[in-house]
């Protein structure tokens, strides 16, 4: 049974930092790429960052230079370090498994975690 379990969300002031974790089980971790998505109230879910099985990373423009995605294959865990947080980063953050295709495009699978809420106050 595939499971992705996120943690690390919470309430933080603008300018602060959080580190999200996603512990993965039930799949061969090292052969998968992973993505962090977020969904704010009333908005569509969007891909924030992705990491390939080889460690290559991609980010949306609004988080470049502030967020860092990483993976620890031994711990079967994917991280999202979020610095210089802004009010507009407030969302539920989800972890997803998938693969990176040609051109470095991330394709998500049907496997999702339940999400962790990040609230950034002004």
Question: If you had to describe this structure to a student in words, what would you say it looks like?
Answer:
- With 122 residues, this protein is an all-beta fold.
- Helix content is 0%, strand content 56%.
- The radius of gyration is 13 Å and the shape is globular.
Keywords:
mainly beta; 7-stranded mixed β-sheet; globular; 122 residues; 4-stranded antiparallel β-sheet; 56% strand
What is the residue-mean pLDDT, rounded to a whole number? 95
- The outline comes out as globular
Main structural class: mainly beta
Taking the sheet with the most strands, its summary is: 7 strands, mixed
Radius of gyration: 13 Å
Estimated share of beta-strand residues: over 45%
| Count of individual beta strands | 11
Number of contiguous helices: 0
Low-confidence stretches: none
Helix content: under 10%
What is the helix/strand order?
A: EEEEEEEEEEE
Taking the alpha carbons of the first and last residues, their distance comes to 40 Å
């Amino acid at each position: 049974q595939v499971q992705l379990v996120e943690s690390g969300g919470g309430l933080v002031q603008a300018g602060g930092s959080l580190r999200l974790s996603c512990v993965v089980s039930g799949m061969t971790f090292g052969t998968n790429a992973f993505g962090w998505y977020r969904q704010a109230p009333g908005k569509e879910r969007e891909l924030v960052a992705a990491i390939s099985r080889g460690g290559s990373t991609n980010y949306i423009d609004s988080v470049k230079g502030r967020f860092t995605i990483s993976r620890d294959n031994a711990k079967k865990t994917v991280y999202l370090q979020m610095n210089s947080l802004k009010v507009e980063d407030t969302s539920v953050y989800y972890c997803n498994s998938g693969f990176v295709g040609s051109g470095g495009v991330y394709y998500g699978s049907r496997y999702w975690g339940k999400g962790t809420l990040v609230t950034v106050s002004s």
